[in-house]
Design brief:
Aspartate Aminotransferase, domain 1, 2 domains, seven-stranded mixed beta sheet, three-stranded antiparallel beta sheet, 14 helices
């Protein structure tokens, strides 16, 4: 059976070049970088080389990179660490967009619940973009920081971060962006953007699970969220994950060498997929911004069906995608991201998200287009609500 894996936002395989680079650090080169003898100092040197590689990918300095266990931890460190370090001086107001990753939203809610912060969940337009004027109006003298993601894993939209940063910079408010979805997919430069903090995920680059990084502009104050020793200049305790750090360093090196050719290639595959879906499947919505979006991202809402059912249907044909809605406690819940951009809850239930990577082929896109229309038609045929709706339209 042919196979088309198009759920790279959920999980991406470790690249062979990355695995090869990591292997010696599991058994042969196992030293602790904090050790004072030569085995430790050699590993410390290797770790700093990887820090430089990650920094180079985003136009930062190596001493501005903090290694973490994941993008989620980096988001927690950014939101909680910055807010708790600076609220006495700045205030207890925090702004995040309504379509952020759960690790951002729940970090903000944590501060709201346990530390009495006021959180503004900034609305977005129909494409998921934040209006700079709306952000400007939301800022107050008590705003401690703003966090707005660069790219959305669910609808693919890219924000104009430099424009949003300019608003915050004029007000003297630090700005964080979750760039897990965009780093390695499109060129990202922290100096051009002007951000103060930026989150990176290793797995999104082809590194193993269990490694991430936070860009943190020097001279800003940050409260560690993982207390321990002096690791990461006192900003994150715990012995460093050296194999993972070597992995993200090699993955960053590869990602930098492949841009922008990778973005062009993925955009070509995405456009082929989008055109085919829109041509062959009726009653479908293409979600997110049509142009300002991640190059390998295509997201749809199909009327009359449930996204989970479609995901399972496609998997039987070797096609792996994801859905923006989630089944929890036996009750179908609509994606808050789709709700934030104004998608009708009934339509939002039919969410389907494709996230492509460099390993995907044009033949895989054709495989999807061969089976997706029939899968949608079959599911609609079993839906009494859809049949009733179509019958009503026919009789009108």
């Amino acid at each position: 059976m042919k196979r088309a894996y198009m759920d790279h936002a959920a999980a991406t395989p470790v690249r062979p070049e990355v695995l090869e680079a990591m292997m010696p650090f599991f058994v042969e080169r196992f030293g602790n970088p904090s050790a004072v003898y030569d085995l430790g100092s050699e590993i410390k040197e290797v770790m700093e080389e990887q820090r430089e590689k990650v920094a180079r990918l985003i136009g930062a300095r190596s001493d501005e990179i903090i290694f973490t266990s994941s993008g989620a931890e980096a988001n927690n460190l950014a939101i909680k660490g910055m807010s708790l370090a600076n609220f006495l001086k700045r205030g207890k107001h925090l702004i995040v967009s309504a379509i952020e990753h759960h690790s951002v939203l729940n970090s903000a809610r944590f501060l709201e619940k346990f530390f009495d912060f006021e959180v503004t969940f900034l609305p977005v337009d129909q494409y998921g973009r934040v209006d700079p004027e709306r952000l400007k109006k939301a800022l107050t003298s008590a705003t401690v920081m703003v966090s707005i993601g660069h790219g959305s894993n669910e609808i693919g939209t890219l924000q104009d971060i430099s424009e949003l940063v300019a608003v915050c910079r004029a007000a003297g408010v630090p700005f964080h962006t979750d760039a897990v979805a965009s780093v390695g997919q499109v060129p990202v430069d922290v100096k051009e953007m002007g951000v103060d903090l930026l989150t990176i995920s290793g797995p999104a680059l082809g590194a193993p699970k269990g490694i991430g990084a936070l860009y943190f502009r020097n001279k800003l104050r940050l409260v560690p969220q993982l207390n321990g020793g002096i690791q990461e200049n006192g900003r994150r305790g715990g012995t460093e994950n050296i194999p993972g750090i070597v992995g993200i360093g090699r993955a960053a090196e590869l990602a930098l060498s492949e841009l922008p050719e990778k973005a062009v290639y993925l955009a070509k595959l995405r456009d082929l997929l989008v055109a085919g879906v829109q041509e062959n499947v009726p009653h479908v919505f293409y979600t997110g911004h049509p142009k300002m979006r991640l190059p390998g991202h295509a997201s749809f809402c199909f009327e009359g069906i449930e996204g989970e059912a479609l995901v399972f249907k496609l998997s039987s044909q070797g096609i792996y995608a994801n859905t923006g809605s989630a089944c929890a406690s036996k009750a179908l819940k609509t994606s808050p991201v789709l709700g934030a951009i104004g998608i009708n809850p009934e339509v939002a239930q039919g969410s389907l998200v494709f996230t492509l990577n460099r390993d995907n082929l044009e033949a895989e896109v054709h495989h999807v287009l061969e089976h997706l229309p029939q899968a949608v038609e079959n599911l609609r045929a079993f839906s009494p609500v859809w049949r009733k709706k179509m019958a009503a339209k026919a009789g009108a």
